[in-house]
């Protein structure tokens, strides 16, 4: 069991790295595409961490901290709503469904890579 203070520091450190990484992806890939990329990569990473033989330190640092800050539900929601408000209901729907499918597939692949699913 991890000490609560140590866990908080690990989450904070992972979160800082995740937030900077998310910003870097946003600078490299524009708009909706960056949201799908970070959510899929974050889901994959979380799947690997949860499946692998890692301790609580890695779960706090990478799973909760990094993945929590790197992935972005709020940007997903904003992009979906703003696209719908622009009258692009089909694009907004495809974006929402595509984001969910990509994240679910990525976490599944991460679990396979991590060794939970054979």
Automatic annotation (TrEMBL):
The residues that the entry says bind Na(+) are 68, 71
Per its record, how is this protein called by name? Fluoride-specific ion channel FluC
Mainly resides where?
membrane
Q: What's its membrane topology?
A: Multi-pass membrane protein
Residue ranges annotated as transmembrane are 34-51, 58-77, 89-117
Q: Name one GO cellular component term.
A: plasma membrane
Species source reads: Halorubrum vacuolatum
**Which keywords does UniProt give here?**
Cell membrane, Ion channel, Ion transport, Membrane, Metal-binding, Sodium, Transmembrane, Transmembrane helix, Transport
Pfam families assigned: CRCB (PF02537)
Query: What does the entry give for GO biological process?
Result: cellular detoxification of fluoride
Q: How is its activity regulated?
A: Na(+) is not transported, but it plays an essential structural role and its presence is essential for fluoride channel function.
The free-text function statement in the UniProt record for this protein reads: Fluoride-specific ion channel. Important for reducing fluoride concentration in the cell, thus reducing its toxicity.
Q: Which family does it belong to?
A: Belongs to the fluoride channel Fluc/FEX (TC 1.A.43) family.
An MF annotation (GO) of this entry: metal ion binding
Q: Which InterPro entries match?
A: FluC
Q: Where in the cell is it found?
A: Cell membrane
State the reactions this protein catalyses.
fluoride(in) = fluoride(out)
């Amino acid at each position: 069991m991890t000490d609560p203070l140590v866990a908080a520091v690990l989450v904070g450190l992972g979160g800082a790295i995740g937030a900077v990484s998310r910003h870097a992806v946003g600078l490299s890939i524009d708009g909706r595409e960056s949201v799908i990329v970070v959510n899929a990569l974050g889901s994959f990473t979380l799947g690997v961490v949860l499946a692998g033989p890692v301790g609580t330190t890695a779960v706090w640092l990478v799973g909760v901290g990094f993945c929590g800050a790197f992935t972005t539900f709020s940007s997903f929601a904003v992009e979906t709503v703003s696209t719908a408000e622009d009258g692009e209901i089909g694009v907004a729907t495809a974006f929402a469904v595509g984001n969910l499918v990509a994240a679910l597939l990525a976490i599944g692949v991460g679990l396979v890579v991590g060794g939970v699913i054979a």
